[in-house]
């Protein structure tokens, strides 16, 4: 019913916009040295003249649920190095509706992840199948205040969660990680060589009492966060279930996850929490087919999530399961340099996922100490970098790229098809009938592009090597 309403809305609104007079409301551009510059240098094009790209208003594509980031421990501890005023300013910029990034869909871990302060789970008591010692006490110092601060600004913020590792006693190797650090590494995760796992195997103990206990673990997690006033709308059973890592991780086969889902799905249905399959970080569509072709599981799976090399599987899955909700669950994370080159790569990722059916796009690290080094010794990019010595911060290039979408594209917007020789753009139709066009100019010099929208042609000037968002609303 919800999907049908969006489709009807899209067709009616598209026809209305195409038939109406409209005007350019705002044009904002970002370059390597000048982020988020408001200006307006769009001229009308001659009717009937050749265009570079045409935006099709009559055949809207998938509905967009939103854009967002992730709550992890190092995100909160880095922001906590700022003054209260600066931290409040950052949080308003990220989460207050209509202010800045306007994030609406965010992710969190179930227990430790690679950007936690250290390893932990909610129950490390060996053999505690009844979860008598379950506790989120660790999260009360970091994740809970982080999420509460965001939801105070946006109570409608949607939240989903996934584990990086189950409690270590639920795994065959009895360790939170899957492999030892490389020789010569400064990082020690305490793993013995005989505890190493292998991709394509089930490292979670494949026994009914463990499946039941782990489903109860998820239920306790949902309940404990509800007691904190935090509703979690959706869960995924495992982050990157094919990856063998030195940090919290757990290999599963798709068949093994299918067995666990038979216990997880009923537990989540009792709590009215959706279950997605993911996160998919391999280009193997058959891993998804294992779940979606199972008649006992297909009704309970509300979506599929992709990240990293999983991007190569999203197109095929979207073609074969066109009504399935698809998420991009984690933008590739960079190397901690937060440079412009990686930002331009991130643009190609956004185009790829959105053009292949993704309805939500998630960034990973909200904030990190400058350099972005994790507990396990590797560096990643973040939306915000904090100098914990000087107690200062900066928004990085990828923050502004995300904002070029998230500030303007409303929940429920529809992606629009485009055609023509110029393809470096994405267009969206919002529920309020406004049109959002995000354009990349990869040339070093400024250029104009001719964009046909309905019966009108717009010719905006795009700064050299830039991202530009143009918004159009009907009078």
CATH class of the largest domain: Alpha Beta
How many β strands by DSSP? 23
What is the annotated CATH architecture of the largest domain?
A: Alpha-Beta Barrel
The secondary-structure class comes to alpha/beta
Which band does the percent of strand residues land in?
A: 25-35%
Overall outline:
globular
Radius of gyration: 23 Å
Tell me the CATH superfamily of the largest domain.
Glycosidases
CATH topology label of the largest domain: TIM Barrel
* Straight-line N-to-C gap: 30 Å
Number of helices, where a helix is a run of at least 4 consecutive DSSP H or I residues: 10
Major β-sheet annotation: 12 strands, mixed
Mean pLDDT: 94
Flag low-confidence runs: 1-20
Structural domain count = 2
- Which range best describes the helical content: under 10%, 10-25%, 25-40%, 40-55%, 55-70% or over 70%? 25-40%
Model description:
- The structure is a single chain.
- The protein has 475 residues and is α/β, with parallel strands linked by helices.
- It has 2 domains: 2-61 and 415-474, Golgi alpha-mannosidase II (Immunoglobulin-like); 66-411, TIM Barrel, CATH 3.20.20.
- 27% of the residues lie in helices and 25% in strands.
- It has helices at 2-19, 73-79, 84-95, 143-153, 208-227, 254-270, 286-292, 311-320, 340-355, 397-406, and strands spanning 22-30, 37-39, 42-44, 53-56, 63-64, 66-70, 105-110, 158-163, 234-235, 274-280, 301-307, 325-330, 358-365, 367-369, 384-387, 392-395, 413-419, 425-429, 435-441, 447-448, 451-453, 456-462, 466-474.
- The strands form 3 sheets. Strands 1, 2, 3, 4, 5, 17, 18, 19, 20, 21, 22 and 23 form a 12-stranded mixed sheet that branches. An 8-stranded parallel sheet has the order 6-13-12-11-10-9-8-7. Strands 14-15-16 form a 3-stranded mixed sheet.
- Helix 8 links the parallel strand 11 and strand 12.
- It is globular and about 75 Å long.
- The model is unreliable at 1-20 (pLDDT under 50).
